[in-house]
Amino acid sequence: MAHRLRTVFNHGNKAVAAAAAATTFGAAAASVTFLSDDVVHPIELPWDHLGLFSSYDCGSLRRGFQVYRQVCATCHSIERIHYRELVGVTHNTQELVEMSSEIDVVDGPNDEGEMFERPGKLTDPLPSPYANEEQGRVANGGALPPDLSLMVKARHAGQDYLFSLLTGYCEAPAGKPMMPGLYYNPYFPGGAIAMPPPLNDGGVEYEDGTPATISQQAKDVVQFLNWCSEPEADTRKKQAAQYMVAIAFTAIMSGYYKRFRWSPYKTRSITYLK
What we know:
With about 270 residues, the protein is mainly alpha-helical.
């Protein structure tokens, strides 16, 4: 590039030289990538459910819910999702009734003014691993594991970031000091994260026989968390298609009516006689 600039300058063509210099500096500026020194930005992944006419894969949602229950639920909660909202999405009604009845929920007060425990039911939210915030901090060295209900929306790049985070654990590079109890993950700001690698090959046994690789588990649980943040997404897309059809029909009928109603006025001929 520099040799080309020198050649142009030697020929004395100042205008061409200026244009070449501008092109060179523009290309150099465009090639600059502004990245933080301590974080790697996730790549954009082709999620099928993000298409205009695409929907969530219920099989993947069921597997993702299984990964959440068996892995993530030991530390994280999803307080905004109730069992009844999973009916027809991950499980049928009977399965969710049995699943919810396995937990004990503190309810009350009763007629005597005391709190009591009862079996869970469909109207209950997914249980939290800790009774309160203080208990969660004590169990995790002072750090409170965040609720995952809106985690996809709460992070830049959403599902791409979560997938990269779950699959991005590796050995710290040379010269990167790591404090005890922290793990290196280049996708986490600072590179040091207190959460140990949550996924392992074969860490869960899928009911449908899908190989439970780390990437498969990460894909399924991230898609489930994406559904948790937007459980109305499929319904909204269906309604949007219906609205667009209605708007198109209204526009066509309005155009036809306008032509029919005003055609006598547009095609009439006015003659003025003395």
